[in-house]
């Protein structure tokens, strides 16, 4: 499958010219982000919560405590919608009406199941941490039995999805082009600064190579 099939669930209706259903494009956006937002219903109320995630093939993994109401709610529902957005720029137009933003966003719709197999569960936790900082799982203490058993890991299959992408300049009205008002794009990206070591580290504890590499690659 190279594209997700369009349906009433995943079809982009507002600004359809910016819609994208290409699987590789959607996966690339998911891989460039670390935080997603998950919508769910709790006691008749709609709630949206940000949480860390990782993608592995056509699955998304999230984790939380055994009593986490978002995790329990979507597990009970058996399905979930996961949203990811990357802000790439501020589009500052001549007119207030045409101010906008450049962005890459994805909505994923999928079925939810609990990861029970101990190896799959540990692999999912490693996947989430390595999605945050590639290769960092090998630098940390692995979860002990108490921590492991207190953690709920959910797998969300990417059954359907769509992206919406804006990557362009200002779209002002033609009659506004001669106005002496500045217009343009302010590019935005997330960057990393030098790692700050914890004050309680034993002497001569060095910053791991994975962390240094992450900082260097995200300056």
TrEMBL record:
Top-level division of the source organism's lineage: Bacteria
Alphabetized GO MF terms: oxidoreductase activity
UniProt xrefs under Pfam families: Pyridox_ox_2 (PF12900)
InterPro entries cross-referenced by the UniProt entry: Pyridox_Oxase-rel, Split_barrel_FMN-bd
Keywords of this entry: Oxidoreductase
EC number(s) on file: 1.-.-.-
PANTHER family linked: 5-NITROIMIDAZOLE ANTIBIOTICS RESISTANCE PROTEIN, NIMA-FAMILY-RELATED PROTEIN-RELATED, FLAVIN-NUCLEOTIDE-BINDING PROTEIN
Protein name, per record: Pyridoxamine 5'-phosphate oxidase family protein
Phylogenetic classification of the source organism: Bacteria, Pseudomonadati, Bacteroidota, Flavobacteriia, Flavobacteriales
